[in-house]
Each structure stands twice: as structure tokens, then as C-alpha cells.
Amino acid sequence: xxxxxxxxxxxxxxxxxxxxxxxxxxxxxxxxxxxxxxxxxxxxxxxxxxxxxxxxxxxxxxxxxxxxxxxxxxxxxxxxxxxxxxxxxxxxxxxxxxxxxxxxxxxxxxxxxxxxxxxxxxxxxxxxxxxxxxxxxxxxxxxxxxxxxxxxxxxxxxxxxxxxxxxxxxxxxxxxxxxxxxxxxxxxxxxxxxxxxxxxxxxxxxxxxxxxxxxxxxxxxxxxxxxxxxxxxxxxxxxxxxxxxxxxxxxxxxxxxxxxxxxxxxxxxxxxxxxxxxxxxxxxxxxxxxxxxxxxxxxxxxxxxxxxxxxxxxxxxxxxxxxxxxxxxxxxxxxxxxxxxxxxxxxxxxxxxxxxxxxxxxxxxxxxxxxxxxxxxxxxxxxxxxxxxxxxxxxxxxxxxxxxxxxxxxxxxxxxxxxxxxxxxxxxxxxxxxxxxxxxxxxxxxxxxxxxxxxxxxxxxxxxxxxxxxxxxxxxxxxxxxxxxxxxxxx
Length: 491
Description:
Low-confidence stretches: 1-16, 71-79, 473-491
Helix content: over 70%
CATH topology of the largest domain: Helix Hairpins
Order of helices and strands: HHHEHHHHEEHHHHHEHHH
Subcellular location: Cell membrane
CATH architecture of the largest domain: Orthogonal Bundle
Organism: Pelomonas nitida
Main location: membrane
Radius of gyration: 66 Å
Largest sheet: 4 strands, antiparallel
Membrane topology: Multi-pass membrane protein
Oligomer: single chain
Number of domains: 3
Structural class: mainly alpha
Pfam family, one: GNVR
Strand order of the largest sheet: 2-3-1-4
Distance between the termini: 28 Å
Strand content: 5-15%
């Protein structure tokens, strides 16, 4: 049936009512339009898939391995962060790595590259930067999923060139990573070389200053000499105390002797000569008393005895004076000894104080030497570490797999393009068919009449039979409609 309805209300209702069977009947009725649209999309997709130049993608992989530093044995836990992988990807895509690839492959010497640069830029600018920009357009760097692996892929019309450029980018990245690690170490190494030289000169100056100080003061920076001088000071002090005691005693005896009581001093009274003279004097006085009482004072024996007693007294006085003079000499000697010891103690005390002061000054120089030595050792240690780091030949990144020439092109993908062409073309064809049907709504089945009029269908008039199949279909429809009339909605 090809009857057209012009009623706007009926058309509006029909636009909002469409069953799956009606949809299939619409597609069947407009199959030419459907296939025309779908083929209009599919054929260009297939043609382009065969016409477009093929490109091959070679993939190499890098692993960013986090291990303890063999120099300091410290694990860099901070490397296990997404930011590190992102940083490595940025380094791979950097201009520095690209220029290293261009220089390694000597692309600037290619006549074809120079001609293309001349055609595009008219020779203006940097051909190396231009080549880097072109290479980076075909470079694709992606991180592995939840891993520290980075995949480096490169597209090129030649599979060998694609593999070579992918491996060149990986190698340039590894060399750049080593440079990024060793360049700061080399700068630090040069810095510590200068600092080590300055620290060594400071240490030598401090040592020379200590040597000159020791030679000037005749001092060795140990505690032994100071201990000896302290011991000597203690001994002199003890001798002074003893001498002061003896001097005080001698002064007392001298004062007693000067007062006329020298004969009462113990050392004088106990002297053998004085004791003998006193014994003789006592015996003579006793005899004189005996004889004078018996013979009288005028007796020659008495006179002679008196003369002997007078002589004994003179001798005793003379001996006492002599011994008393000896007490004065001993006192003078004690005072002189005391004065000498005082001077010696004072000199020794000054010497000890000078030694102590010199040792304190030397201790300051020694501390300067120790600080200079410690500073020099630390700088030399850091210099050694940075020197080793500056000679490192590896970084925390390593090659996992090298790129090999791919066998199949990655672009265009003909099966995928055909499937996508069929899918997109089918969707577009369905849309076009649906839009065409909505603009010109027609009755495709008997159900359309029942829904449109709300009346049961009593029969179907056969159209001109063009084939046995169409006649059979119309007979089947007629029997179905006559045998199963739809109930009236009005009833």
C-alpha cells in the first residue's frame, strides 16, 4: 500500500507510535536508501584504508628501578611516586633528548631532510629543532599500568626506521638520565676540590702555627712538663714552710741570746765545753769556800784559787759569747734560706702560670687544628663520594626491551576500519531512513490502519501480483485479517 495521509494530527500520533515490526517494515521499504547511505560511508572507509600510506609502530620499554644507592646505601623511597614516572616521561619527550637523537643519527646531514626543511621553512631557523619537532609528533610515551615501566613507541613508514628511532630515543634518554645524575656530581666535585685545597691550606697553617708556638715557648703540648713543674712548686712550698719554722725558732734563740740569757739556751747549756767549764767552776768555787773558811781570804792558796775561778768565769763567758754568736749566724742563715726559698717559690709559681697560659694558648691552636682536620676530612669524604658519583655510568632507569621492526602496520587497520565503517554507516543509515520516514509517514502494514482509524480491519484487497511470493504473502495476510478481526475500541 502506498496511500498517503495528510492529516497533521494523524501523522503526529503516528510519529510517536512505532513498533519494532513497523521499524523493520520501514527499513525494508526504504532498503535502497539504507544501503546507499551505509555504502556511502563504508566504501570511502575501505578505500581510504587501502589508499592511505602504511605506518609501522615499534615499541621499546624502560623500567625505572628503585634500588638503594650503592654509594650511600640509602633507599630513595621518594622515587616510588607517580611524579617520578611523570618526570621520566617529560624527560623522554624533552627537546634535549630529541636533539641527542638527531645528533646520534646524523639526521641533519640527510639531503632529504635538508630539502624538506628548505621547502617548509625557507632555510630560516634551526634545522635541528625542526627535526626534533617532527620526530616528537610520531613519538608516543606511555607509562605502564600500576608499574614503573615506560613504553616508548614510534611510528614510521619504514618498520626498520621505526625500530631504530624508538631505540634511539631510549638510548638518548638513558644517556641523558646519566648526565642529569653525573653533571651535578661533577659540579659538586669541582666545588669540593677547591674547598679541599682551602681546607688543607688552613690545616697546614694551623700546624705550622703550633710548631712555631712550641719552638718559641719550648713547650710540648702534653701535660707531663706541667705536672713536673707543679710537683717542683709543691716541693719548694714544703721546703719554705719548713724553713720558715726553723727561721722562727732561730730568731727566738737569737732574741734570747741578745737579751743576755744565751747561756740558758739548750744548745749552749748542753755544749760539752760549757758543761765542762761549769763543772770546773763549780768544783773550784766549792774548794774556794772550803779553803777560805779554813785558811782565810789572804791565804795564797785562796788567792790562787780565786784567780783560777776568775779565769774559768772568763773562759765560760767567752765560750757562751762564741756559742751565742753561732746562734745569730744560724738565724741569719735560716732567714737567708727562707728568703731564697720564697724567691724560688715565687719564680716557680710564675713559671707554672706561664706554662699554664702557654698551654692554654697551645690548646686553642690544637682545637683550631682539630677543627681544621675535621673539616678537611669531611670535605675529602664528600669529595670522594661526588667524584665516584660523577663517574657513574648508569642511573635508576634501565632498558627492559628493545624495539624490533614490526611485521604488520599499525595504521591503517583495515579490519577495524571496515567494522567501524559498517557500524557508523549502519547508524547513519538508520538515522537517515528514520528521518525520511518521519517527514513522509506512510502506511506500511494493516496494523497502521487499525491504529490510525481505531476500527477493526475486515479485509485486504490484493494488489497486482508481481510474483508467486508476493501472492502467497498477500493471501496469508488476507486469511489472518479475515479470520481474526480486531475488536472495536468503540464497543
